[in-house]
Amino acid sequence: MSAKENHFAGESARRYDTSHAGMFTPEEVDPVVGLLTELAGEGRALELGVGTGRIALPLSAAGVPVHGIDLSEDMVAELRTKPGAEQIGATVGDFATTRVEGAYSVAFLVFNTINNLTTQDEQVACFRNAAEHLEPGGRFVVEVGVPPVRRLGELDDTVLFSTGPTHWGYDVLDTATQSMVSHHITVEGEHGRYRAIPFRYVWPSELDLMAQLAGLALEHRWADWHRAPFTSRSTAHVSVWRKPA
């Protein structure tokens, strides 16, 4: 396993599905699986940051052979407890550099996982790694938020993104380095739990340049998995880059 710090180990891995329960609903999952199934065609899919299998399991159930890479051994262990997991190959390692056998018609990174790579060099390496796994004509798909700097005040560096009776979340951004730390405060009964996870936010145009360096060309950019148009007001995007045939 990479020496990179793992923020999804132990209790964080065991609680992952319940703490992100809203992302496991059919309304969230089905559009993702539908688009990836279409892009995979008769080929195979590679998920970078497979986690506990939120997308890999239903994608496999839809008939697409799936292999996943994840830094967290504990997240992969959670995946292995679920029905259908025996159909999914999984490799523990840094998805920016870890190579697995075979060629894939689609590789994908969802739910802001590209931001878990906290340097530009790592993100560039990830695009190269994805491109090397793709067969000619294959696609690399990334789902990620648009950096929320527009929501910052003139002297502020904090964006509140979640408020509720059991969870508060806020991001602290450094616009000089594009670094961001997500802070989570969770209330469970009479007890509270605090987590801080570092990220590096990245702009759509920057991702396009990373793709170009890896020999990929932008094919589509949508605001969501329903393929809504991407505009200057979009808060996230689903982008598809294609390897030359």
Automatic annotation (TrEMBL):
Domain Methyltransferase: from-to ranges: 46-138
Q: Which Pfam families match?
A: Methyltransf_25
Organism, by scientific name, is Nocardiopsis coralli
Keyword Transferase among record annotations: yes
**Keywords on record:** Methyltransferase, Transferase
User: Per its UniProt record, what Gene3D superfamilies does this chain match?
Assistant: Vaccinia Virus protein VP39
InterPro entries for this protein: Methyltransf_25, SAM-dependent_MTases_sf
What lineage does UniProt assign to this protein's organism?
Bacteria, Bacillati, Actinomycetota, Actinomycetes, Streptosporangiales
Q: ATP-binding: present as a keyword of the record?
A: no
Name of this chain's protein: Class I SAM-dependent methyltransferase
GO terms of biological process kind: methylation
| Single annotated GO MF | methyltransferase activity
